[in-house]
Specification:
The protein is mostly helical. Helices cover 47% and strands 4% of the residues.
């Protein structure tokens, strides 16, 4: 079901014609033979040889990683105990930029990411190999390979979308967080899609939506342009729309928007323009909070399922901690946000922060 949803959304964005050639097949290193290319220099992920599935076990190691220190995480719970080896935005890549060759753009991507954000290459590499049955994530989402600048400008999207292809290729509700940490849950889709939650677009009906309503095609800094994409449609009609997906796919977007921010942070010095990298993850954190609040008020069975499910509690706390790790690291980089300050204010609503605290309590952190 998740793979079908991805195919629908990809085609909505514009599918390649059947005879489209895969120009990215030439010059690929590490994307064949089932081998992880691994880091070549710069930052690296600790514990890359192991994988912990937190659906049935403890948090993964990454012993050399950085923990979030934001006051919005709890050091006595999973969110504050999360660790990850951070990106290295200062790693030298001038030689790669100077020697860029369009036919070898995949080699360029691999080398840039392995120096600055090795997890990003790991995601692309696995997305290409394991998500091949869904499609070629680079061909779908990186059309302009003419220069290093153009490739860099699409790199965040590439990691994000290849992350979707990777997770959709796995069984159940699988979420690859790090090389050594995959969380696999079950039954997280909406009840109309054979799960135990509700359509994510239903949060449009809550009391918070008016604070930043869907843009509905308008161009205003005070509206939620992401809602037009992810909270669209009518969950009560007979047509499939993206907003019909349940909590699992809302959480999936949080995972990928963290990857987007991490990638944008890794190469922010290569861009002359501002991006909405922080805005995207802050918006989705706000939606997670609102979803939990709406479940508590209107869908008690879904609320009981999520808070009573060890796997989904682990997922919520893990992505909450990981998100604030990168939001904290990029707090002073104005280039990575457009309206992030306004959105963060919404996330900091005490009533919504209480929803995350309720997850901690349900997980035994209190």
């Amino acid at each position: 079901m998740r793979s079908f949803s991805v195919l629908v959304l990809i085609c909505a964005a514009g599918c390649l014609p059947d005879d489209a050639s895969s120009s990215s097949s030439g010059g690929v290193r590490g994307a064949s033979g089932g081998q992880d290319a691994g880091p070549t220099s710069g930052a690296s992920d600790a514990g890359s040889s192991s994988r912990v599935d937190a659906g049935g076990g403890a948090q993964g190691p990454d012993a050399g990683g950085t923990q979030p220190s934001s006051p919005l995480v709890d050091s006595d719970c999973l969110d504050g105990q999360y660790r990850e080896t951070m990106v290295d935005p200062d790693a030298e890549i001038a030689d790669l930029v100077g020697n860029f060759s369009s036919p070898d753009f995949m080699i360029y991507i691999e080398e840039v990411l392995n120096r600055r954000y090795p997890l990003g290459w790991h995601i692309i590499d696995r997305g290409l190999r394991e998500g091949a049955a869904i499609g070629h994530c680079i061909d779908f989402f990186m059309r302009d390979r003419s220069s290093a600048e153009r490739v860099n400008s699409q790199l965040s999207t590439a990691v994000h979308e290849c992350g979707h292809f990777l997770n959709m290729s796995l069984n159940d509700d699988a979420f690859v967080i790090r090389r050594d940490l995959q969380i696999t849950c079950q039954d997280g889709d909406s009840t109309d899609r054979f799960g135990r939650t509700f359509a994510r677009s239903r949060i449009n009906d809550d009391d918070y939506s008016r604070l930043r309503p869907p843009c509905q095609g308008n161009r205003s800094p005070d509206c939620d342009s992401y809602a037009d994409i992810y909270l669209d449609g009518d969950p009560d009609n007979d047509d499939f729309e993206g907003g019909d997906q349940g909590f699992n796919m809302l959480a999936e977007e949080v995972v990928q928007y963290i990857n987007s921010l991490a990638t944008s942070y890794a190469i922010y010095d290569q861009s002359r323009y501002s991006t909405s990298a922080r805005d995207g993850i802050l918006t989705h954190l706000w939606w997670i909070q609102r979803y939990l609040a709406h479940a508590r008020d209107r869908y008690p069975a879904a609320h009981q399922f999520i808070l009573g499910n060890d796997c989904y509690r682990r997922l919520i706390l893990t992505i909450w901690g990981r998100a604030w790790l990168y939001l904290e690291a990029t707090e002073e980089i104005s280039q990575l946000t457009i309206n992030g300050g306004e959105i963060e204010t919404l996330v900091l609503d005490p009533n919504l922060l209480a929803e995350i605290e309720a997850v901690r309590e349900a997980h035994g952190c209190r």
